[in-house]
Specification:
Elements (H helix, E strand, L loop, with lengths): L1 E3 L3 H9 L3 H11 L3 H11 L3 E5 L5 E9 L7 E8 L7 H18 L2 E7 L5 H7 L3 E4 L4 E7 L7 H5 L2
Parallel strand pairs: 4-5
Antiparallel strand pairs: 1-2, 2-3, 3-4, 5-7, 6-7
Length: 159
């Protein structure tokens, strides 16, 4: 796989080939103008990476965003994959593991929410040391915190 700088064209191509599970998640969280909002959010993300295969077909985009308003270094991790991911699962898994390990060094807490269409991903997230909480019938809160760090999960789950 090749890491490339994302632009509107390759993000559009990724969006048009998103896995069904990721598209369902975008629909739930973005509500409307999915493609336009997806491209806008990805282009605005500061700490991102974009992977293509050797033919420059998009495989995945992901990253971590700093969460403002906290004294602690907190990051919101994210990932969206194309249907091409099935041909590159092992390579992508290794790449993501390296990124997560890097993020764990930089942040005291990593988190995000996962939509019900993507619950299968919780298995490999657990393998990376993440835990999760059921927060609603539609999504779950997942997180990784450094050992000894404390945080109030109610702030993130509103429960």
């Amino acid at each position: 796989m090749i890491e490339v700088v994302p632009n509107k064209q390759n993000l559009s191509k990724l969006f048009d080939n998103l896995r069904k599970e990721d598209f369902e998640e975008l629909k739930f969280f973005l509500k409307d103008n999915y493609k336009e909002n997806f491209i806008k959010i990805c282009m605005g993300a500061k700490n991102k990476w974009f992977l293509c295969d050797k033919s420059f077909n998009p495989v995945a985009i992901g990253g971590v965003e700093d969460v403002c308003g906290h004294k602690e270094k907190i990051g919101q991790v994210w990932l969206m994959c194309s249907n091409n991911v099935t041909r590159h699962k092992l390579e992508l898994f290794k790449y993501i593991k390296n990124k997560i390990d890097e993020f764990k060094k930089r942040y005291k807490l990593l988190f995000n929410y996962i939509y019900k269409s993507n619950y299968d991903a919780l298995k490999w997230l657990e393998g990376f040391g993440f835990k999760y909480k059921n927060t609603s019938k539609d999504y779950r809160f997942f997180y990784f915190k450094k050992e000894g760090e404390k945080f109030d999960i109610r702030y993130y789950t509103r429960k």
